[in-house]
Amino acid sequence: MDKEAKPIVAELDRRHDPADCVSDVLLEKCSELGFRTLTIPEKYGGGGVEDTVTVGIVCEELGVGDLSLASIPVNGRKLYHMLNPDLASEEVRDKWMKAYCDDVGFMVAIAMTEPDSGGDNILPYNEPGHGVRTTAVRDGGDYVINGRKQFIAHAGIAKLYTLFARTDPSKGVMDGTSCFLIPETHPGMSFGRVHDKMGFRLLRNQEIVFDNCRVPAEWMLGPENGGIAAMRAGLRSDGILNAARCLGVARRALEEIVDWCKNRVQGGRPVIEHQAIACELADMHVMLQAMRALVWNVAWAVDHEPPDPKAVPGVMAFCTEHAFEIAHRAAELAGGMGVMKDMPFEKLLRDAFCIKHLDGGNYLKRFKVAAGL
Fold first, then answer.
1. Rounded to an integer, what distance in angstroms lies between the CA atom of residue 85 and that of residue 283?
2. What are phi and psi of 122, to 5 degrees?
3. From 91, 111, 304, 309, which residue has the greatest number of CB atoms within 10 Å?
4. Which stretch of DSSP H or E encloses residue 67?
5. pTM above 0.90?
6. What is the pLDDT, as a whole number, of residue 305?
7. Which residues, including other chains, have CB under 8 Å from residue 268's CB and lie 6 or more apart?
8. CATH classification (class only), 108-225
9. Which of 74, 147, 76, 154 is nearest to 110 (CA)?
């Protein structure tokens, strides 16, 4: 992260065109080091790391370089959990996980969010006419898919897409949506604009358009009309890794501002010796320690305790909010240099703000905690 990633990351973040911000070099390097396939079982060619705390530590360290790098081990874990034995045959699992491990540039995209349906899918709002509107209509041995997805992470560069489409419009999203596995370059699937985000720029989000996209029925993942429930069961615990990568952003912001305050002299002394600034730094340090303790606690519980519906959304909300708080304070303490693009603070602040809006945003995460209570 220090010697290779950070210099490349800084240059990519400044590029005007969001389509130019993704780095094949960094992805391939992370693949060579085993991060991308870290959680895939060894029998498919992966690292076989099952311990969620270990994966969380890797995500924090990669997140110090950039949030997008921390999404790389998350990607492999999502593939593994989506292709769980309840949803996919061993033939399908063997095919796609081996392909994933054999190709250093293989990434997976999960295509759910649409222009008119985001939070409705996550909450979910389980009424007909709401949530996923992309349709998949049975035609003989195929399904014909039409619709548009947006904000899809890794779209345009992924080699496998897990698509959620409405197979029964008369029912709510939980009871009328199915999931399909679609490989790249499949006829009828094309790509729209790359979304131009304020931060988190090294992770591409792009539109996907389905125009009479015909897919074989055997590409359906799990039972018909059970796609949302299947996804929620398969990916329930992976949100903890989003919280873990928040640690990387927060830690980087704290390390950078402590170093700055040691070297910036005002009032005849380094500013870290001024009591008001020292207290700010102390608070930021304690926030970070609380974030890490909560992440590790919940990560351990994911592997060793019965599922708690409050745990993962709670830690995600806590860590995303406090990562932003730490990045914000760091930029404030840097004064005029906190808003300069040749310093790290404004980028970290932009990234920390963006990650608050993943997976439906923090209000929906709080709703889930409250529902669990």
1. 45
2. -85, -35
3. 111
4. helix 67-82
5. yes
6. 94
7. none
8. mainly beta
9. 154
